[in-house]
Specification:
Blueprint (H helix, E strand, L loop, with lengths): L1 H30 L1 H23 L5 H18 L1 H13 L4 H20 L10 H28 L17
Helix pairs in contact: 1-2, 1-4, 1-6, 2-3, 4-5, 4-6, 5-6
């Protein structure tokens, strides 16, 4: 019965953590000048693509594919890290703020690097590219940390498969 209660509490915590991460992501992207330029350029390119498809008599499936890719990326960035860290916290019995906040932040910040597969090779790297990647990593860490902290506030402080008062003798 305890496991079912923890499962429901974990789902509720995710229900609150995901919108928190989304709100921090939107706020960070709107505040960061480099992200504003990137968003504006991307929006204009997407609008141009959709309008050129429509003027050519093609269905706007490119826009649908773009939206599907965006939804997939948002799911990976906003749902997966708190779910993985929350599940790990339940299994390992971790209740610390650091586990949920820093762990979720680090996992979220590492996801673009992990999905890319490896670091880009090449001797000379553009300093503007490095600065942009560092800014994005910092933004994603803040997104993940905020989601992890909300998860911890709701469900993480009492994590563990066995309640404290019901632990067997000798453990």
């Amino acid at each position: 019965m305890h496991a079912l209660g923890r499962l429901i509490l974990g789902a509720f915590a995710l229900l609150l953590a995901v919108p928190t991460g989304l709100a921090v992501l939107v706020l960070a992207l709107l505040v960061d000048p480099a992200a504003q330029a990137w968003l504006t350029g991307g929006a204009l390119a997407g609008l141009d693509m959709a309008l050129s498809d429509l003027s050519a008599g093609l269905p706007p499936e490119g826009l649908a594919l773009l939206l599907a890719g965006l939804a997939k990326a948002l799911f990976a960035l906003l749902f997966v890290p708190p779910a993985v860290i929350g599940l790990g916290g339940e299994i390992l019995g971790r209740r610390g703020l650091l586990w949920y906040g820093a762990g979720c932040g680090l996992l979220t910040a590492a996801l673009p690097w992990l999905t890319r597969g490896a670091l880009r090779s090449g001797g000379a790297r553009d300093t503007a590219l490095l600065a942009g990647e560092a800014r994005l990593t910092l933004i994603l860490f803040a997104v993940g940390a905020s989601a992890g902290l909300v998860y911890w506030l709701v469900a993480g402080r009492g994590a563990g498969l066995v309640p404290d008062g019901h632990r067997p003798e000798g453990t």
